[in-house]
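Re: Re: token formats

Sure, here are both.
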Amino acid sequence: MINILLVTHGKMAEGMYSSVGMLIGKAENFDFVCFDKDMGQDELKEELDKRLADVSDGKQYLIMCDIKGGTPFNVASRYSFKNDNAAVFYGVNLPILIEAIISREGKSLGQLAEYLEGVSGTTIGLSEI
């Protein structure tokens, strides 16, 4: 099963992790890292090194970040550049996170990433009055 690691600015990841538990229950192989204002890039890298230590052992990770070009995205992207067992998805929101969790079974990392990119546009919209 593909592991999902949520990495965002501030406490967003913690809040989304909690919301996932409320909406679909405890998800296996799902964790989060918060990039707090008191952390530096090196500290975030150390935290990701701990969480992704087994990526070189063949475990696959989808790292979901909030903002393309932000520190969580930039640090996480180094893992996907170095290892085919990691992919980075940016622009995460709660619906796409839940979709990733419930849709990962039976998919390769590449298939899951492509699928999520394809359906991501359906997770936002403007309600008609």
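Second one below.
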Amino acid sequence: MARPRIPILSPEKICLAALEQIDRKGDFSIPVLAKELGVSASSMYHHVHGRAGIVNGIRALISTELSLAIGLEDATDEDLAALAAMSWQDQVRRWSKDYTRALAKHPLALPIMVQEPVSDEQTLEVYEAIAITFRSVGFTDEQALVAIAVLEGLTFGRVVDAASPPIPWAADPDAHPVLHGVTRSLEPSRRLELAFDFGLEAIIARLEGVLAANARG
């Protein structure tokens, strides 16, 4: 008699299932994951370290979607050379836009991911890349940290905004006529794009000023 087929588990399979559950429901449950995968909940703990381990695995999956050359395992020498040839400003633009694009594919995962510290290698490499960019052109450790935090805030805000209603402000045309008109002056997708670009360019301009001040001593 043939032995019953046992589903093969792996950390990636578990985290992919959790991410799919988040995309559908806004969260994931280990008992529900076990049921969907056809295994017992206890067997999953042989592959992941509880909920925190799954969250970090989800973050790693999302980070691998980034198109940053330095953040990809299959980066070619040409990819790395092209990245190195960019100005630091263009590297910041690319990092911010690529990171936003990857996160925006799974906006409901963001509130869950921010509850756990970043410890997966893929995401740490993404942040290492931008930290190297800032330090290599003359920003201090403190300035680089602040810059990364501000860029992260812009990126996270953009992802949350994209998951919000198309017009977040339900302004009544009689009670709030100016706000009502303002909120309908742009298509929602255009508003998101312009707001993100405005914030990003403002950050870069401020960083240019900080770097110039550093050079003057």
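The chain has eleven helices and no strands. The domain at 72-216 is CATH 1.10.357.10 (Tetracycline Repressor; domain 2).
- S.
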